[in-house]
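in:
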Protein backbone atom coordinates (compact mmCIF):
# COMPACT_ATOMS: atom_id res chain seq x y z
CA UNK A 1 0.00 0.00 0.00
CA UNK A 2 1.25 3.50 -0.78
CA UNK A 3 -0.58 5.56 1.83
CA UNK A 4 0.94 8.31 3.77
CA UNK A 5 -0.76 9.89 6.71
CA UNK A 6 -0.12 12.53 9.30
CA UNK A 7 0.79 10.74 12.49
CA UNK A 8 2.79 11.43 15.62
CA UNK A 9 5.53 8.89 15.07
CA UNK A 10 8.25 11.19 16.43
CA UNK A 11 6.59 12.01 19.69
CA UNK A 12 4.10 9.21 19.98
CA UNK A 13 4.86 8.37 23.60
CA UNK A 14 4.59 4.76 22.46
CA UNK A 15 6.92 1.80 22.11
CA UNK A 16 8.16 2.44 18.60
CA UNK A 17 8.65 -1.24 17.74
CA UNK A 18 5.03 -2.09 18.54
CA UNK A 19 3.80 1.02 16.77
CA UNK A 20 5.71 0.45 13.51
CA UNK A 21 4.65 -3.24 13.58
CA UNK A 22 1.08 -1.96 13.45
CA UNK A 23 1.74 0.64 10.74
CA UNK A 24 3.99 -1.33 8.37
CA UNK A 25 1.47 -3.80 6.89
CA UNK A 26 -0.79 -0.94 5.82
CA UNK A 27 1.64 1.90 5.14
CA UNK A 28 5.06 1.75 3.54
CA UNK A 29 5.71 5.41 4.34
CA UNK A 30 4.16 7.78 6.90
CA UNK A 31 4.58 11.49 7.70
CA UNK A 32 5.49 12.35 11.29
CA UNK A 33 4.66 15.52 13.23
CA UNK A 34 7.81 17.22 11.91
CA UNK A 35 6.71 16.55 8.32
CA UNK A 36 9.43 13.95 7.76
CA UNK A 37 8.70 11.00 5.48
CA UNK A 38 9.37 7.86 7.49
CA UNK A 39 10.21 4.77 5.42
CA UNK A 40 9.04 1.64 7.20
CA UNK A 41 9.78 -1.24 4.85
CA UNK A 42 13.05 -3.07 4.28
CA UNK A 43 13.17 -2.67 0.47
CA UNK A 44 12.53 1.09 0.62
CA UNK A 45 14.97 1.73 3.46
CA UNK A 46 17.69 -0.20 1.58
CA UNK A 47 16.88 1.61 -1.69
CA UNK A 48 17.19 5.04 -0.04
CA UNK A 49 20.35 4.13 1.93
CA UNK A 50 22.05 2.89 -1.26
CA UNK A 51 20.97 5.87 -3.40
CA UNK A 52 23.57 8.38 -2.24
CA UNK A 53 22.87 10.79 -5.10
CA UNK A 54 19.17 11.36 -4.56
CA UNK A 55 19.14 10.82 -0.75
CA UNK A 56 21.77 13.17 0.64
CA UNK A 57 23.20 12.95 4.17
CA UNK A 58 23.63 16.75 4.44
CA UNK A 59 20.69 16.94 6.81
CA UNK A 60 21.96 19.35 9.43
CA UNK A 61 23.32 22.91 9.54
CA UNK A 62 25.76 21.67 12.19
CA UNK A 63 29.08 20.08 11.28
CA UNK A 64 28.74 16.28 11.39
CA UNK A 65 31.93 14.39 10.59
CA UNK A 66 31.66 12.12 8.60
CA UNK A 67 27.92 11.41 8.64
CA UNK A 68 26.78 14.83 7.38
CA UNK A 69 28.89 14.69 4.21
CA UNK A 70 28.28 13.20 0.76
CA UNK A 71 30.50 11.88 -2.02
CA UNK A 72 34.24 12.54 -2.12
CA UNK A 73 34.21 14.75 0.95
CA UNK A 74 32.55 11.99 2.97
CA UNK A 75 35.05 9.42 1.66
CA UNK A 76 38.07 11.53 2.77
CA UNK A 77 36.87 11.89 6.35
CA UNK A 78 35.57 8.34 6.52
CA UNK A 79 39.04 7.01 5.63
CA UNK A 80 40.57 8.84 8.62
CA UNK A 81 37.92 7.46 10.97
CA UNK A 82 38.05 3.91 9.64
CA UNK A 83 41.77 3.70 10.52
CA UNK A 84 40.88 3.87 14.22
CA UNK A 85 38.09 1.31 13.97
CA UNK A 86 39.85 -1.45 12.02
CA UNK A 87 40.51 -4.97 13.29
CA UNK A 88 44.23 -4.19 13.76
CA UNK A 89 43.58 -0.90 15.57
CA UNK A 90 41.02 -2.44 17.94
CA UNK A 91 42.68 -5.78 18.73
CA UNK A 92 45.06 -4.40 21.41
CA UNK A 93 42.01 -3.13 23.32
CA UNK A 94 40.35 -6.54 23.74
CA UNK A 95 42.06 -7.30 27.09
CA UNK A 96 41.23 -3.75 28.28
CA UNK A 97 37.54 -4.23 27.42
CA UNK A 98 37.55 -7.68 29.10
CA UNK A 99 38.97 -6.22 32.26
CA UNK A 100 36.36 -3.39 32.31
CA UNK A 101 33.52 -5.90 31.80
CA UNK A 102 34.77 -8.46 34.33
CA UNK A 103 35.27 -5.89 37.08
CA UNK A 104 31.91 -4.24 36.47
CA UNK A 105 29.97 -7.53 36.54
CA UNK A 106 31.90 -8.87 39.56
CA UNK A 107 30.87 -5.82 41.59
CA UNK A 108 27.17 -5.95 40.74
CA UNK A 109 25.09 -7.06 43.74
CA UNK A 110 23.44 -10.51 43.49
CA UNK A 111 19.86 -11.38 44.41
CA UNK A 112 18.52 -7.81 44.24
CA UNK A 113 16.70 -5.90 41.51
CA UNK A 114 19.04 -4.14 39.05
CA UNK A 115 18.28 -2.03 36.00
CA UNK A 116 20.13 -3.62 33.08
CA UNK A 117 20.10 -0.36 31.07
CA UNK A 118 21.18 2.14 33.74
CA UNK A 119 23.27 -0.01 36.06
CA UNK A 120 24.90 -2.36 33.55
CA UNK A 121 24.59 -0.94 30.00
CA UNK A 122 25.23 2.75 30.64
CA UNK A 123 28.09 2.19 33.10
CA UNK A 124 29.72 -0.38 30.79
CA UNK A 125 29.36 1.92 27.76
CA UNK A 126 30.95 4.90 29.50
CA UNK A 127 33.80 2.89 31.05
CA UNK A 128 34.67 0.99 27.92
CA UNK A 129 34.61 4.10 25.66
CA UNK A 130 36.73 6.08 28.17
CA UNK A 131 39.22 3.19 28.26
CA UNK A 132 39.33 3.07 24.45
CA UNK A 133 39.73 6.84 23.98
CA UNK A 134 42.20 7.25 26.85
CA UNK A 135 39.86 9.50 28.83
CA UNK A 136 40.13 9.76 32.64
CA UNK A 137 37.78 7.56 34.69
CA UNK A 138 36.89 10.74 36.61
CA UNK A 139 34.71 11.74 33.62
CA UNK A 140 32.36 8.80 34.26
CA UNK A 141 29.76 10.56 36.49
CA UNK A 142 29.65 13.56 34.15
CA UNK A 143 29.13 11.36 31.08
CA UNK A 144 26.46 9.24 32.81
CA UNK A 145 24.53 12.35 33.85
CA UNK A 146 24.88 13.69 30.32
CA UNK A 147 23.53 10.47 28.77
CA UNK A 148 20.45 10.62 30.95
CA UNK A 149 19.76 14.24 30.06
CA UNK A 150 20.42 13.59 26.37
CA UNK A 151 17.75 10.86 26.35
CA UNK A 152 15.31 13.07 28.22
CA UNK A 153 15.88 15.93 25.75
CA UNK A 154 15.49 13.60 22.74
CA UNK A 155 12.26 12.17 24.16
CA UNK A 156 10.86 15.65 24.79
CA UNK A 157 11.40 16.79 21.19
CA UNK A 158 12.39 20.22 22.63
CA UNK A 159 14.95 21.57 20.12
CA UNK A 160 16.41 24.24 22.40
CA UNK A 161 17.01 21.62 25.10
CA UNK A 162 18.64 19.25 22.59
CA UNK A 163 20.99 22.01 21.35
CA UNK A 164 21.87 22.90 24.93
CA UNK A 165 22.66 19.26 25.78
CA UNK A 166 24.84 18.96 22.64
CA UNK A 167 26.76 22.09 23.73
CA UNK A 168 27.32 20.65 27.19
CA UNK A 169 28.81 17.59 25.56
CA UNK A 170 31.13 19.69 23.40
CA UNK A 171 32.44 21.36 26.56
CA UNK A 172 33.25 17.97 28.09
CA UNK A 173 35.02 16.97 24.87
CA UNK A 174 36.96 20.24 24.62
CA UNK A 175 38.26 19.61 28.10
CA UNK A 176 39.35 16.11 27.05
CA UNK A 177 40.95 17.13 23.75
CA UNK A 178 42.72 20.35 24.62
CA UNK A 179 45.15 18.82 27.09
CA UNK A 180 46.11 16.21 24.46
CA UNK A 181 46.82 18.87 21.86
CA UNK A 182 48.59 21.23 24.25
CA UNK A 183 50.91 18.50 25.45
CA UNK A 184 51.82 17.44 21.89
CA UNK A 185 55.48 16.14 22.15
CA UNK A 186 54.90 14.27 25.44
CA UNK A 187 51.17 13.48 25.09
CA UNK A 188 50.10 9.91 25.97
CA UNK A 189 49.80 7.55 23.00
CA UNK A 190 46.02 7.13 23.23
CA UNK A 191 43.28 7.08 20.58
CA UNK A 192 42.28 10.71 21.26
CA UNK A 193 45.85 11.95 20.83
CA UNK A 194 46.29 9.90 17.65
CA UNK A 195 43.08 11.37 16.29
CA UNK A 196 44.31 14.89 17.14
CA UNK A 197 47.34 14.23 14.93
CA UNK A 198 45.34 13.08 11.89
CA UNK A 199 45.71 14.94 8.63
CA UNK A 200 43.01 15.45 5.99
CA UNK A 201 43.65 17.26 2.68
CA UNK A 202 47.22 17.92 3.85
CA UNK A 203 46.18 19.80 7.01
CA UNK A 204 45.42 18.89 10.61
CA UNK A 205 41.81 18.35 11.61
CA UNK A 206 40.33 21.52 13.09
CA UNK A 207 39.10 21.60 16.67
CA UNK A 208 35.50 21.71 15.44
CA UNK A 209 36.07 18.63 13.28
CA UNK A 210 37.69 16.78 16.17
CA UNK A 211 34.81 17.64 18.49
CA UNK A 212 32.30 16.49 15.90
CA UNK A 213 34.06 13.14 15.39
CA UNK A 214 34.35 12.52 19.12
CA UNK A 215 30.76 13.60 19.71
CA UNK A 216 29.71 10.99 17.18
CA UNK A 217 31.89 8.27 18.76
CA UNK A 218 30.69 8.99 22.26
CA UNK A 219 27.57 11.16 22.40
CA UNK A 220 25.51 8.94 20.14
CA UNK A 221 27.15 5.63 20.76
CA UNK A 222 27.19 5.61 24.55
CA UNK A 223 23.41 5.72 24.53
CA UNK A 224 23.13 3.11 21.77
CA UNK A 225 25.48 0.71 23.53
CA UNK A 226 23.58 1.06 26.81
CA UNK A 227 20.27 0.41 25.04
CA UNK A 228 21.76 -2.60 23.20
CA UNK A 229 22.89 -4.11 26.53
CA UNK A 230 19.35 -3.61 27.90
CA UNK A 231 17.80 -5.40 24.93
CA UNK A 232 20.31 -8.27 25.12
CA UNK A 233 19.86 -8.82 28.87
CA UNK A 234 16.06 -8.71 28.43
CA UNK A 235 16.25 -11.49 25.84
CA UNK A 236 18.51 -13.62 28.01
CA UNK A 237 16.23 -13.18 31.02
CA UNK A 238 13.26 -14.27 28.91
CA UNK A 239 15.05 -17.26 27.37
CA UNK A 240 17.09 -19.31 29.85
CA UNK A 241 17.68 -21.89 27.08
CA UNK A 242 19.59 -19.27 25.10
CA UNK A 243 21.80 -18.53 28.12
CA UNK A 244 22.83 -22.20 28.25
CA UNK A 245 23.48 -22.29 24.50
CA UNK A 246 25.67 -19.18 24.64
CA UNK A 247 27.83 -20.45 27.51
CA UNK A 248 29.50 -22.96 25.18
CA UNK A 249 29.21 -21.00 21.91
CA UNK A 250 32.19 -19.67 19.92
CA UNK A 251 32.81 -15.92 19.66
CA UNK A 252 31.34 -15.82 16.16
CA UNK A 253 28.20 -17.69 17.29
CA UNK A 254 27.73 -15.26 20.20
CA UNK A 255 28.14 -12.31 17.81
CA UNK A 256 25.59 -13.79 15.38
CA UNK A 257 23.08 -14.22 18.23
CA UNK A 258 23.68 -10.61 19.36
CA UNK A 259 23.05 -9.30 15.83
CA UNK A 260 19.83 -11.32 15.57
CA UNK A 261 18.49 -10.15 18.96
CA UNK A 262 19.24 -6.55 17.97
CA UNK A 263 17.51 -7.08 14.62
CA UNK A 264 14.33 -8.14 16.39
CA UNK A 265 14.49 -5.20 18.78
CA UNK A 266 16.76 -2.59 17.19
CA UNK A 267 17.26 0.31 19.64
CA UNK A 268 19.16 2.43 17.06
CA UNK A 269 15.93 3.58 15.48
CA UNK A 270 16.56 5.77 12.45
CA UNK A 271 18.80 8.05 10.39
CA UNK A 272 17.92 11.03 8.25
CA UNK A 273 18.35 11.91 4.59
CA UNK A 274 17.25 14.82 2.40
CA UNK A 275 16.10 14.39 -1.21
CA UNK A 276 18.16 16.19 -3.86
CA UNK A 277 15.42 15.93 -6.54
CA UNK A 278 11.81 14.68 -6.74
CA UNK A 279 11.79 10.93 -6.03
CA UNK A 280 9.27 8.14 -6.31
CA UNK A 281 9.72 5.70 -3.44
CA UNK A 282 7.44 3.43 -1.45
CA UNK A 283 4.77 4.11 -4.06
CA UNK A 284 4.87 7.79 -3.21
CA UNK A 285 6.00 10.94 -5.01
CA UNK A 286 8.27 12.87 -2.64
CA UNK A 287 9.43 16.37 -3.60
CA UNK A 288 13.00 17.66 -3.78
CA UNK A 289 14.35 18.92 -0.44
CA UNK A 290 12.07 16.59 1.57
CA UNK A 291 13.31 15.21 4.88
CA UNK A 292 13.25 11.42 4.94
CA UNK A 293 13.83 8.98 7.81
CA UNK A 294 15.19 5.48 7.30
CA UNK A 295 13.52 3.53 10.08
CA UNK A 296 15.94 0.65 10.74
CA UNK A 297 13.85 -0.71 13.64
CA UNK A 298 10.82 -1.19 11.42
CA UNK A 299 12.75 -2.40 8.34
CA UNK A 300 14.48 -5.01 10.51
CA UNK A 301 11.10 -6.58 11.32
CA UNK A 302 9.58 -6.42 7.83
CA UNK A 303 7.56 -9.61 7.31
CA UNK A 304 8.26 -9.48 3.56
CA UNK A 305 11.91 -10.28 4.33
CA UNK A 306 11.91 -11.93 7.76
CA UNK A 307 8.66 -13.92 7.52
CA UNK A 308 7.15 -14.42 10.96
CA UNK A 309 10.26 -12.93 12.61
CA UNK A 310 11.36 -16.25 14.12
CA UNK A 311 14.73 -16.02 15.91
CA UNK A 312 17.14 -17.43 13.31
CA UNK A 313 20.63 -15.85 13.33
CA UNK A 314 21.86 -17.76 10.30
CA UNK A 315 18.89 -17.19 8.02
CA UNK A 316 18.44 -13.51 8.83
CA UNK A 317 22.06 -12.28 8.96
CA UNK A 318 22.35 -11.21 5.32
CA UNK A 319 19.37 -8.84 5.44
CA UNK A 320 20.07 -7.49 8.96
CA UNK A 321 20.19 -3.65 8.97
CA UNK A 322 21.19 -2.96 12.58
CA UNK A 323 24.43 -1.28 11.43
CA UNK A 324 22.93 0.25 8.28
CA UNK A 325 23.92 -0.31 4.65
CA UNK A 326 25.69 1.66 1.90
CA UNK A 327 28.52 4.20 2.18
CA UNK A 328 27.36 5.45 5.59
CA UNK A 329 27.07 1.96 7.15
CA UNK A 330 28.44 1.98 10.69
CA UNK A 331 32.26 2.06 10.75
CA UNK A 332 32.06 1.28 14.49
CA UNK A 333 30.37 -2.07 13.92
CA UNK A 334 33.38 -4.16 14.92
CA UNK A 335 33.99 -2.08 18.05
CA UNK A 336 30.32 -2.25 19.08
CA UNK A 337 30.12 -6.00 18.33
CA UNK A 338 33.26 -6.80 20.33
CA UNK A 339 32.20 -4.62 23.24
CA UNK A 340 28.75 -6.24 23.37
CA UNK A 341 30.16 -9.76 23.02
CA UNK A 342 32.71 -9.12 25.78
CA UNK A 343 30.01 -7.69 28.10
CA UNK A 344 27.73 -10.67 27.46
CA UNK A 345 30.49 -13.22 28.00
CA UNK A 346 31.52 -11.56 31.28
CA UNK A 347 27.91 -11.74 32.44
CA UNK A 348 27.48 -15.39 31.44
CA UNK A 349 30.76 -16.40 33.08
CA UNK A 350 29.94 -14.67 36.33
CA UNK A 351 26.26 -15.49 36.94
CA UNK A 352 24.13 -18.67 37.11
CA UNK A 353 20.86 -17.06 36.19
CA UNK A 354 19.53 -13.79 34.84
CA UNK A 355 15.89 -13.53 35.92
CA UNK A 356 13.17 -10.98 35.19
CA UNK A 357 12.41 -9.20 38.47
CA UNK A 358 8.93 -10.18 39.69
CA UNK A 359 6.69 -7.17 40.50
CA UNK A 360 8.94 -4.81 38.49
CA UNK A 361 7.67 -4.33 34.97
CA UNK A 362 10.21 -3.57 32.24
CA UNK A 363 9.61 -0.08 30.81
CA UNK A 364 9.99 0.40 27.08
CA UNK A 365 11.61 3.57 25.76
CA UNK A 366 9.24 5.75 23.78
CA UNK A 367 9.59 7.21 20.27
CA UNK A 368 11.97 8.44 18.99
CA UNK A 369 14.23 6.36 21.28
CA UNK A 370 14.12 2.54 21.04
CA UNK A 371 14.78 -0.41 23.34
CA UNK A 372 14.07 -0.25 27.09
CA UNK A 373 14.18 2.70 29.46
CA UNK A 374 14.38 0.34 32.44
CA UNK A 375 14.94 -3.40 32.38
CA UNK A 376 14.70 -4.75 35.96
CA UNK A 377 16.52 -8.08 36.40
CA UNK A 378 17.95 -10.16 39.23
CA UNK A 379 21.36 -11.77 38.84
CA UNK A 380 22.03 -14.93 40.84
C1 LIG B 1 26.02 0.40 19.67
C2 LIG B 1 25.69 -0.02 18.55
C3 LIG B 1 25.70 0.77 17.28
C4 LIG B 1 24.71 0.75 16.35
C5 LIG B 1 23.43 -0.09 16.39
C6 LIG B 1 25.12 1.63 15.27
C7 LIG B 1 24.38 1.85 14.12
C8 LIG B 1 24.73 2.70 13.08
C9 LIG B 1 23.98 2.90 11.87
C10 LIG B 1 22.66 2.22 11.53
C11 LIG B 1 24.65 3.80 11.10
C12 LIG B 1 24.26 4.27 9.69
C13 LIG B 1 23.90 5.73 9.64
C14 LIG B 1 23.37 6.21 8.30
O1 LIG B 1 23.21 5.45 7.35
O2 LIG B 1 23.07 7.43 8.21
C15 LIG B 1 25.83 4.19 11.85
C16 LIG B 1 26.75 5.12 11.43
C17 LIG B 1 27.85 5.49 12.16
N1 LIG B 1 28.32 4.90 13.33
FE1 LIG B 1 27.38 3.47 14.39
N2 LIG B 1 26.33 2.19 15.57
C18 LIG B 1 26.73 1.69 16.80
C19 LIG B 1 27.92 1.95 17.44
C20 LIG B 1 28.92 2.75 16.96
C21 LIG B 1 30.20 2.96 17.58
C22 LIG B 1 30.67 2.27 18.86
C23 LIG B 1 30.87 3.87 16.80
C24 LIG B 1 32.26 4.44 16.95
C25 LIG B 1 32.91 4.58 18.06
C26 LIG B 1 30.00 4.24 15.71
C27 LIG B 1 30.31 5.19 14.76
C28 LIG B 1 29.50 5.51 13.67
C29 LIG B 1 29.82 6.56 12.70
C30 LIG B 1 31.06 7.47 12.70
C31 LIG B 1 28.78 6.55 11.76
C32 LIG B 1 28.64 7.47 10.52
C33 LIG B 1 29.26 6.79 9.34
C34 LIG B 1 29.19 7.56 8.03
O3 LIG B 1 28.36 8.47 7.90
O4 LIG B 1 29.99 7.25 7.14
N3 LIG B 1 28.83 3.53 15.82
N4 LIG B 1 25.86 3.51 13.05
Amino acid sequence: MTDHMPDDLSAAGRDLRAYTDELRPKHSVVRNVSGEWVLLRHADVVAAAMDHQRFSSRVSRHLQVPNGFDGEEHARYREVIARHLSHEALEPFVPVFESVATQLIARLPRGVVLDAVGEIGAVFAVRVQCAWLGWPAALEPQLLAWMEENHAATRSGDLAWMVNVAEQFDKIIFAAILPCRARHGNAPDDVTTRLCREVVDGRSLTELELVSILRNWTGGDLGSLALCVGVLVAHLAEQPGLVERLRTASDSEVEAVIDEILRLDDPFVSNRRITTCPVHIAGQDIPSGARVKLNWTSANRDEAVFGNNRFDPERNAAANLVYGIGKHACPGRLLATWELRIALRALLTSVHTIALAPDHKPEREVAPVGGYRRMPVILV
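note: The chain is about 50% helix and 10% strand.
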